[in-house]
Amino acid sequence: MTGAAAARAAEQAVRQHRGRLVAWLAWQWRDIAAAEDALAEATARALARWPVDGVPASPAGWLLATARHELLMAARRQRLAEDPALTILWPTADTPADEPAAVPDQRLALLFVCAHPAIDPQIHSALMLQVVLGLDAARIASAFLVKPDAMGKRLTRAKAKVKATGIRFELPEARELPERMAAVLEAIYAAYTLHWDAAEPHAGALAVGEDAGDDLATEALFLAELVAAQQPDSAEALGLVALLSLCEARRPARRDAAGAFVPLDEQQPSAWDARLVDAAHEALRRAAALQQPGPFQLEACIQALHMHGRRQGRVDWPDIVALYDGLIAMAPTLGAHIGHAVALARATEIPRRGLQALDALAEAHAERLTQHQPWWAARAHLLAAAGEAEEARVAYDRAIALTVQPALRAWLAKQRGISPSSSR
């Protein structure tokens, strides 16, 4: 195997298994930062050795064994520094590391550790995104609209807090579960929306994402299903499964044969993943039976209703507006307000009703919205519908400038009436 091929194998193993590896190491050593450092060292060794020795039969097992050995050696060095006479019972650098047959999965438990109340609630989601899902501080910072250095320092402090306070690495007690559950679900949803190019995460609003997030999107859905399976009485966990399943079901229809972006209103329902749609509806039925309404359930209902309307050829916009009213009452996020504005314009067939809602939002969040792509995209769409061509072009220009994903940028450029190449 060539060095390049071995390097790709190492990178792929880390990308596929990082969450499980860090979770297991942190679980055993009660130190998140040390687990991440040990895995980084194991990855460096893989890049050096695999081109020579060949890729092992179990790349994840090799990485885990090597990282575990690194942690043992670090502990040995620390103990010897404290007591040079202590040389027994600790491995030497030459001691071989045994590869485990399988990598244990402690990700769910580690998610709940990251959501411990002793850690600043403002960093819960960011900590989970980095530790369990492997996003770097810069990417997380962009999502939370803070500087990368500031986010990096917050994450470092949070990991140190976990070690210093002796937070127990175990599933929370029943009385602690609701508070931590909310943070865990938010982090999983944040991971999905960060790395999946959902054109309409709120069934009517336009948003931006990245094509590179397919693996993370799949991982987020898996974690949502894992939480729901472990906590079957959590209606919101089921709601999140339904929401992500509906988003994933539309993946095959989001591009045409040429790779161009296709908005939900123009997608072919026959291209949707029927298995995921059925799974989403089943999750929603189970959630409804628990009679615990929540934001994720409402967002999933909005998605389901919009998709049903696409199948029938007519979307029930008044019902979608009503669902948004309920969502805003529970979770008045920017996305919910933007989706409500678009739905209101469609329900009343009066674009200015939606524009008024967007303007009211701008008055309350002027600074945040200057860099908020979905607001500019929604505003451009509604201005064009209202016949305000020049203002619409200005808004489209701003939305295009804030859009990272090429296919969506090209689609916005087409809506503006310019060639895709000139929008780059």
Beta-strand content: under 5%
Helix content: 55-70%
The count of DSSP E runs of length 2 or more, i.e. the number of strands, is: 0
Distance, first to last CA: 39 Å
SSE succession: HHHHHHHHHHHHHHHHHHH
> What's the architecture of the largest domain in CATH terms?
Alpha Horseshoe
Low-confidence stretches: 86-90, 197-213
The helix-and-strand class reads: mainly alpha
* CATH structural fold name of the largest domain: Serine Threonine Protein Phosphatase 5, Tetratricopeptide repeat
Please identify the top-level CATH class of the largest domain.
Answer: Mainly Alpha
Q: Counting H and I runs of at least 4 residues, what is the number of helices?
A: 19
Main sheet overview: none
| Global Rg | 24 Å
| Shape verdict | globular
Give the CATH superfamily of the largest domain. Answer: Tetratricopeptide repeat domain
Number of domain modules: 3
Return the average pLDDT rounded to an integer. Answer: 84
